[in-house]
């Protein structure tokens, strides 16, 4: 059984004080993690404060990115080893904003995936699809290529615990989300790609999220689909009331 994962990605928003207040406010208001798992990926600067405030430990505190080396002369980078030392369970890898603004290539993303696994954490691997590619009908190959490249050399025992997020970049922050049919099609395609690389059994156990303008008023239709196991929400994960609603989507 795939436990749903409702994840937020704060990007470069909030202050340390606001991050602490958010975690304090959601205590006791999120579902039990064996029913619906919840996570917030936040800037590295906030993580220890959030971990301290997370008294009931229901919310998973995640990182938005990390580097692919564990340590060394890499000024400004975030060490996956240091994330592991503070017990961060999930790291987002390959978000479309990292690809676009920080020139992360498929090769860099693949190295980061290996680094996250090497340090015992779970990557949330994002794959993308642009509006241009969507209208020219190229999206299928694009998503397949990104997933395949990210997983190069990843053994099945690691791949079995990964999370993948399907995030068409035309739907991110635009207010125009993919329809539940489009989101299901993308997530289905990713599952087939994982099955081709590994096996049907492995693919059936992997959680695949949809991201792009997910809100409390559209999450139910997405979560009803067979291949969508959760969401990666940006803007609507920032206010605590909205994140609590997303997390409790089964009661909306
Ligand atoms: O990682 C999250 C995605 O970029 C979605 O962001 P959004 O919900 O603000 O569209």
Q: What does the largest sheet look like?
A: 8 strands, parallel
How many distinct domains?
1
Query: How many alpha or pi helices?
Result: 12
What gap, in angstroms, lies between the N and C termini?
Answer: 22 Å
The shape is: globular
CATH class: Alpha Beta
Instruction: Report the C-alpha radius of gyration, rounded.
Output: 17 Å
Mean pLDDT: 94
CATH architecture: Alpha-Beta Barrel
- Order of strands side by side in the largest beta sheet? 3-2-1-8-7-6-5-4
Measured by DSSP, the beta-strand proportion falls in: 15-25%
Overall strand count:
8
Topology-level CATH name: TIM Barrel
- H and E string: EHEHEHEHHEHHHEHHEHEH
Report the bound ligands by name, code or SMILES: glyceraldehyde-3-phosphate
Low-pLDDT runs of 5+ residues are none
Helical residue percent? 40-55%
CATH superfamily: Aldolase class I
Structural class by sheet pairing and helices: alpha/beta
List the helices and strands and how they pair.
Layout lengths: L4 E5 L6 H11 L10 E6 L4 H7 L5 E5 L16 H6 L4 E4 L2 H6 L4 H13 L3 E8 L1 H5 L3 H12 L5 H4 L3 E6 L11 H18 L2 H6 L1 E4 L8 H5 L6 E4 L6 H8 L5
Helix pairs in contact: 1-2, 7-9
Bound molecules: glyceraldehyde-3-phosphate.
The site of glyceraldehyde-3-phosphate has 14 residues, from strand 8.
Task: Explain briefly what this protein structure is.
With 252 residues, this protein is an alpha/beta fold. The chain is built from twelve helices and eight strands. Its main location: cytoplasm.
């Amino acid at each position: 059984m795939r436990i749903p994962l409702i994840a937020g990605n704060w990007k470069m928003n909030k202050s340390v004080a606001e991050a602490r207040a958010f975690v304090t406010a959601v205590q006791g208001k999120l579902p039990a993690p064996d029913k619906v798992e919840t996570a917030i990926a936040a800037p590295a600067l906030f993580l220890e404060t959030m971990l301290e405030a997370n008294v009931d430990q229901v919310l998973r505190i995640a990182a938005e990115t990390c580097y692919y080396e564990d340590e060394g002369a890499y000024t400004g980078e975030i060490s996956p080893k240091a994330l592991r030392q503070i017990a961060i369970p999930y790291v987002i890898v390959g978000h479309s904003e990292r690809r676009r603004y920080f020139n992360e290539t498929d090769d860099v993303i693949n190295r980061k995936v290996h680094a996250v696994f090497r340090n015992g954490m779970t990557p949330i691997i994002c794959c993308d699809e642009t509006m241009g590619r969507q209208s020219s009908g190229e999206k299928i190959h694009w998503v397949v290529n990104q997933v395949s490249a990210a997983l190069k050399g990843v053994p099945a025992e690691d791949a079995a615990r990964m999370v993948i997020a399907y995030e068409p970049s035309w739907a991110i922050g635009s207010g125009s989300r993919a329809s539940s049919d489009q989101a299901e099609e993308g997530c289905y395609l990713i599952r087939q790609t994982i099955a081709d690389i590994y096996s049907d059994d492995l693919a059936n156990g992997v959680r695949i999220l949809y991201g792009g303008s997910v809100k409390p008023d559209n999450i139910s239709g997405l979560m009803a689909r067979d291949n969508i196991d959760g969401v990666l929400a940006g803007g609507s994960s920032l206010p605590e009331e909205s994140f609590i609603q997303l997390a409790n989507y089964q009661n909306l």
